Every structure is written in structure tokens, then in C-alpha cells.
């Protein structure tokens, strides 16, 4: 019996992570929490607690009430929204992390998962096959908060023996819930336009290549990393992982093979500058070596799965 708390459970990743953890460890194993009510499947399959991660007292009381031992902290502002609210993004992304890390430092909880992002890299980073360890000079508030978070995770491990584990997720593609304000969101939005028979207005240029991943792979990676023996985890900042890379034109062309009259307009906005500062592809040798990471979805399989499963409400 696990006692897991997922914070930010109503978001794009949380919605699927909660269900995957409940499937693996039982419905009672995983408490979902968020400031927002989750979807019906999450709500009906187990306990939900309303929780603002910035409220340290409320967090402690939920941890005590459910005797939580493992926390997955997903609550954050993503890249595009963070650029609009830089001060609040810094507060939420950093204070939220400290509130959880401090409970692990006090040995009230045993294990923490906290996601980082490809946004930790910046324009001075090598953009092709970006290494695990390389130049990191992020230019977005989101990237700065994720890089600082990585340094703090490693510090808490080194100084206080906190078992915190992390992955630098690429852009994630899924159909169960919508993405929440990122630069890679276009790669989900495009499917809704395609299914509705609308022209898709893409906020990135046609040749903007970014690293992406299908959600099922990201969830599997997360649970695998959390189940790996402690001594095999060599990276305590955050692991690079890769799925596949593509441009808006690549995904459009592939969707068009399924929906021949689908059309697209390119109307780049402020998110273009963010995307231009990020890697095109990622080297994930270290994750492969330390915990046998391997992706199962490529672009074609992802598109087939998305087109089959997306429901228009
Ligand atoms: P999301 O925006 O879809 O979900 C975040 C959830 O956090 C939302 O449900 C929101 O209501 C909740 N939340 C916001 N403020 C909160 C607070 N004060 N207290 C409690 N909950 C709060 O984001 P996501 O895509 O699910 O991302 C989850 C994590 O993964 C984030 O840390 C994000 O940076 C990281 N990540 C995501 C991606 C991606 O492509 N989705 C890529 C890299 C990293
Ligand atoms: N998908 C995320 C974003 O675009 C990357 O962390 O913000």
C-alpha cells in the first residue's frame, strides 16, 4: 500500500499520472490535489483534496491526514503564462518546491518527484542532441525557475539526503486534458482544429523544431524513475529524456495524410522567441543507462492515437 499525493492533479500531466498510479497501486493509494476540481474520472476513482501548494499549513495537514510518504509536485506556471506573470511564476514555481522539499528534509515524507523541462536550456546551449550536462543560460522566467529548482533538488539530496527525482520533460502530447499555457501547446491544439475541420492558426513558424513526447511515455518514465533503486540514480538535478522531434510543418503534413483537406496558417507570436531558445533534440543516454529509459511512441504512432481518441465537446 502506497501513500502518494499528486499536487497539480487536475492539469495535463496530473490527470493521467493520478490514473496511472491508481491503476498500478490501487485506487486508495493516490490522493489527487489541486486548486482546480479534476475531471470526473479522477474524481470518481479516488480521494481529491483541494490544496493550494503555497499554503504550507494546509499541505502539512493533508500529508498528516493521509500519512503521505511520496509526493509528485506538478503545480507550476508553464512557459507562456509565466512570461505574462513573471513574479507570480517565480513565487509559485519556487515556493511550491521548497514547501515540499522541506517536508522531505524533516523526514515527514520519504520521496519526491518534481518535473523540470527542456526550458532549462537557452540560446547558448548546443541545440542538436543537447547533452545531459552542458551550457545552461535560460532566458525565460519559467526556464530560470526550473534551472534554479534543479540546483535546489541536487542541493537537498547532497546536504540533507532528500530522495528527490526529476525528469526534464519535452513538450507533452495528450488527449485526456488540455495543456496549460506552454510553448509546445500547439502540438496538442492542432489535433482539435483538424478534427473540427477548421484551419489551424499556428503560433510558431513552420520550421521550428522542438523535442516532444507522447504522454503515455512520459508517465511510464516518471513511474519507472520513481521505482528505480536509489543507488542507480546518478543524476539528482534532472534527467534528459527524449521522444521524437518535429516542426509544425512535419506534424501538419502527417495529420494531412489522415485528413486531406486540413489547412494551416502560420502566425508566430511571443512564443516563437521562447521556442527559438530551446533545443531541437535531446541526448538521453544517461537516463537509458541508469534506469533503462526507452520511448515507445514516434510521431506517426502519436498522431494515430491522438486522432482516434480526441473527443470534441
Ligand atoms: P498544467 O498547467 O496542465 O497543470 C498544472 C496544475 O497545477 C493545474 O491543474 C493547476 O490548477 C495546478 N495549480 C496551479 N497552481 C496551483 C497551486 N497554487 N496549488 C495547487 N495546484 C496548483 O501543467 P502540466 O502540463 O500538467 O505540467 C505539470 C508540471 O510538469 C509542471 O511543473 C510543468 O512545468 C512540468 N512540465 C510540463 C510539460 C508539458 O509539456 N506539459 C513539459 C515540461 C515540464
Ligand atoms: N511544454 C512546456 C512548455 O511549453 C515545456 O516545459 O512550457
3D structure, described in words:
This protein has 313 residues and is an alpha/beta fold. It has a domain at 3-119 and 136-169: 3-Layer(aba) Sandwich (Rossmann fold). The chain is 43% helix and 15% strand. The chain contains twelve helices and 14 strands. It has helices at 12-25, 40-45, 56-65, 79-84, 86-105, 141-160, 186-196, 215-227, 248-258, 271-276, 285-291, 299-309; strands spanning 4-7, 30-34, 48-50, 70-73, 111-113, 116-117, 163-165, 167-169, 171-173, 200-202, 210-214, 239-240, 244-246, 264-266. The strands form four sheets. Strands 3-2-1-4-5-7 form a six-stranded parallel sheet, sandwiched between helices. The chain has a three-stranded parallel sheet with strand order 6-8-12. Strand 2 (30-34), helix 2 and strand 3 (48-50) form a beta-alpha-beta unit. The longest helix is centred in the first third of the chain and has 20 residues, at 86-105. It is globular. Bound molecules: nicotinamide-adenine-dinucleotide and serine. Nicotinamide-adenine-dinucleotide binds next to helix 1 and strand 9.
Amino acid at each position: 500500500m502506497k501513500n502518494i499525493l499528486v499536487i497539480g492533479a487536475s492539469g495535463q500531466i496530473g490527470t493521467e499520472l493520478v490514473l496511472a498510479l491508481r491503476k498500478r497501486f490501487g485506487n486508495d493509494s493516490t490522493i489527487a490535489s489541486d486548486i482546480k476540481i479534476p475531471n470526473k474520472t479522477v474524481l470518481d476513482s479516488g480521494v481529491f483534496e483541494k490544496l493550494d501548494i503555497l499554503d504550507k499549513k494546509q499541505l502539512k495537514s493533508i500529508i498528516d491526514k493521509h500519512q503521505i510518504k511520496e509526493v509528485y509536485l506538478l503545480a507550476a506556471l508553464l512557459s507562456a503564462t509565466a512570461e505574462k506573470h513573471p513574479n507570480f511564476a517565480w513565487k509559485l514555481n519556487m515556493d511550491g518546491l521548497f514547501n515540499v522539499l522541506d517536508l522531505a528534509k524533516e523526514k515527514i515524507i520519504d520521496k519526491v518527484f518534481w518535473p523540470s523541462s527542456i526550458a532549462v536550456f537557452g540560446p547558448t546551449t548546443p541545440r542538436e542532441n543537447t547533452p545531459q550536462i552542458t551550457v545552461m543560460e535560460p532566458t525565460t522566467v519559467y526556464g530560470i525557475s526550473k534551472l534554479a529548482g534543479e540546483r535546489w533538488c541536487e542541493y537537498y539530496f547532497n546536504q540533507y539526503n532528500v530522495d528527490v527525482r526529476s525528469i526534464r520533460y519535452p513538450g507533452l502530447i495528450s488527449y485526456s486534458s488540455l495543456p496549460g499555457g506552454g510553448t509546445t501547446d500547439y502540438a496538442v491544439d492542432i489535433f482539435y482544429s483538424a478534427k473540427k475541420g477548421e484551419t489551424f492558426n499556428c503560433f510558431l513558424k513552420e520550421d521550428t523544431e522542438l523535442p516532444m513526447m507522447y504522454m503515455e511515455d512520459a508517465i511510464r518514465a516518471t513511474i519507472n524513475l520513481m521505482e528505480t533503486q536509489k543507488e542507480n540514480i546518478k543524476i539528482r538535478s534532472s534527467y534528459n529524456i527524449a521522444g521524437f522531434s518535429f516542426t509544425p510543418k512535419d506534424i501538419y503534413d502527417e495529420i494531412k495524410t489522415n485528413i486531406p483537406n486540413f489547412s494551416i496558417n502560420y502566425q508566430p507570436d511571443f512564443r516563437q522567441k521562447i521556442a527559438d531558445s530551446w533545443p531541437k533534440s535531446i541526448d538521453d543516454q544517461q537516463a537509458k543507462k541508469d534506469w533503462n529509459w526507452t520511448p515507445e511512441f514516434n510521431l506517426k504512432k502519436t498522431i494515430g492515437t491522438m486522432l482516434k481518441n480526441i473527443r470534441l465537446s
